[in-house]
Specification:
Number of strands: 8
Helix content: 25-40%
Structural class: alpha/beta
Radius of gyration: 16 Å
Strand content: 15-25%
Strand order of the largest sheet: 3-4-2-5-1-6-7-8
Oligomer: single chain
Shape: globular
Number of helices: 6
Low-confidence stretches: none
Distance between the termini: 24 Å
Mean pLDDT: 90
Order of helices and strands: EHEEEEEHEHEHHH
Length: about 190
């Protein structure tokens, strides 16, 4: 399963939690591949059993999440496409470019921040993308995880709901298994 989350914005917290929950659910190796190692370098190649690599990685497991910032990864087959954006101009322009280059994403991930724009604006700006999920950005969460070098699964409700929707819509995890999955993943640490 190749899942590409493409967009010029900070989404490593979302990718990390999704990877940990996918590993717990499928009991399979999971890898994160990114074209921008800025945030992942502090995890030194692994966090909670999730391998982290750059685009040169050759040996890939069955489940790979691509955290892509610039363009789109090459030579993938049967990937599931998700675009991610914030309300910042460069992030939204990046989604515009991706829409021009690639097929329609299965989902748009909107990382919300305090500003005059909102989800209604995104709905009007991207009317062709029907499925959207969002959560409120948390700089504290992103920075703390990088500083600690580990992921804390005690997260805000809106963030957990966005991850849940992603797992259900994109990864085909049954809705009935979500609550137990979080409990199991928290126990495993």
């Amino acid at each position: 399963m190749n899942i590409v989350v493409a967009g010029d914005c900070e989404k490593h917290d979302f990718i990390l939690v999704a990877a940990i929950l996918l590993k717990s659910y499928f009991n399979n190796d999971v890898m994160i591949i990114s074209d921008n190692s800025r945030h992942y370098q502090y995890f030194e190649g692994e966090v909670s059993g999730i391998r982290i690599a750059d685009s040169s990685a050759a040996d890939k497991p069955d489940i790979v999440l691509y955290d892509w910032h610039y363009g789109y990864p090459e030579d993938l087959e049967e990937e599931v496409v998700v675009f991610a954006t914030t309300y910042e101009r460069q992030a939204m322009e990046n989604v515009d470019k991706l829409l021009d280059q690639k097929q329609m994403p299965a989902l748009l991930l909107v990382i919300e921040e305090e500003c005059g724009l909102g989800l209604k604006y995104v709905d009007k700006y991207y009317p062709v993308i029907h499925s959207k999920i969002s959560y409120i950005s948390s700089p504290e969460r992103r920075i703390d995880w990088i500083q600690d070098g580990r992921v804390d699964l005690k997260v805000d409700k809106d963030f957990a709901e966005a991850v849940n929707d992603f797992l259900i819509e994109i990864c085909n995890v049954p809705k009935k298994d979500i609550k137990k999955l979080w409990q199991y993943a928290r126990k495993r640490g």
